[in-house]
Amino acid sequence: MKKFILIAFLLIIRAAAWGQGCSVCTSVAAGLDDKSAKGLNGGIVYLAFLPLAIMGTVGFIWWKNSRTPHT
Predict the structure, then answer these.
(1) What span, in angstroms and rounded, lies between the C-alpha atoms of 32 and 35?
(2) Fewer Cβ in 10 A, N or C end of the chain?
């Protein structure tokens, strides 16, 4: 049951994140020159790094602690 709730929660969060500002970024990036577009992409990666690193660390620790020992 816990896995179902977790999967449902992640799917809801992911669906909400997809629709947020996608058209705005596309229209802004279409009007930029090459240097500014690279800056926009770099900013997106910079802002996404910390939350992804935190989620990855928490997931790794959770995975390590939930494994059963083979002894």
Answers:
(1) 8
(2) C
Q: Which domain covers residue 43, as residue numbers?
A: 22-71
Number of domains in the chain: 1
Is residue 13 included in any domain, yes or no?
no
Q: Tokens at residue 49, please?
A: 């790094």
Neighbour-count burial of 37, counting CB atoms closer than 10 A to its CB (0-12 exposed, 13-18 middle, 19+ buried): middle
Is 4 a domain residue? no
Question: For residue 16, is it within any domain?
Answer: no
CA distance 7 to 46: 27
Tell me the whole-structure pTM to 2 decimals: 0.50
Q: Give the pLDDT confidence score for residue 23 in this predicted structure.
A: 67
**Residue 44 resides in a domain:** yes
